[in-house]
Amino acid sequence: MSKDAWCSGRDVSTGSAIAKLGDISLVKNEDMRWSTTEDVDEFLAAAGEFLRSRAAEHMIILTVAETLRTRGRDPYGADTPRFGWWGTADVGAAFLRTPPHPVLLERASVAAAAALAQTLVRLDPAVPAVNATPEAAEAFARDWCRRTGAAVEVGRRTRLYRLGDLDTPSVPGAARPAAPADRDLLIDWYEGFGRDIGEDMVHVRDWVDAGIAAGELTLWEVDGLPVSMAAVTGPVAGVFKVAPVYTPPQRRRHGYGGAVTAAVSRAALDAGATDVVLYTDLANPTSNSVYQRLGYRPVHDRVVLSLVPARRAIP
Q: Most exposed residue of 14, 40, 178, 270, measured as fewest CB within 10 angstroms of its CB?
């Protein structure tokens, strides 16, 4: 897509139908503005109640914030994370960014998303992308484009699912907790998952070690051979999140990914989960179909819009 289409407000290929923004980001109400911080505790004190009020929908940002709170500032990268919330008396949206990853934006109106672009273009001009609902992502990207001359590319589209009634499939094999002896295999599979979704997995060894130690990683075995894996984290505000789920290419189309997902979903329910959620890549119809057969139901969609810096003029 062209930069001009985004800046003029003509492109609606994300699926949203918002009008041309103009200067919508110039919000005059002082009660409706973005506050930002590099302190995760300050962020959770300000926005935690808002995020927990619909915890299943906000599970990504809640999980990332909780990981940063418990494991320090660099599980997702070496640079300092940034957090923010929209509004003063009543919080109406929230974001976080863990460089080098995209901005994660939750429940933002078109005006709030555009105002965030205005805020971050000064504070964090290296933002590579925004991850939000289609309408909010498009509003952010339009304003960013207008202010910086960047082009915008539509990246990964995802869908949030919430577990309804779990339907466990009949698949050969059995689930077992991952053990330290599985470390090398899991590192390889985490990296394979990253390649599949087009993302660089940061600190993979640390994630695997922490997952094994916490009992968050489960393998599906057939005749004593691991064929698939799933992780489940939580609870955060009563919600457990399933991710990642990975089956190596040579083991796919046997139902192993669905089986291990059902196993960790059951474990979460047995642990008292109020909700169990997961995200899927909308470009993968197989996984979307599998999870719906297990009992997962769609909640909302998100899109990642990449912000491609304008090329510098050549003298």
A: 270
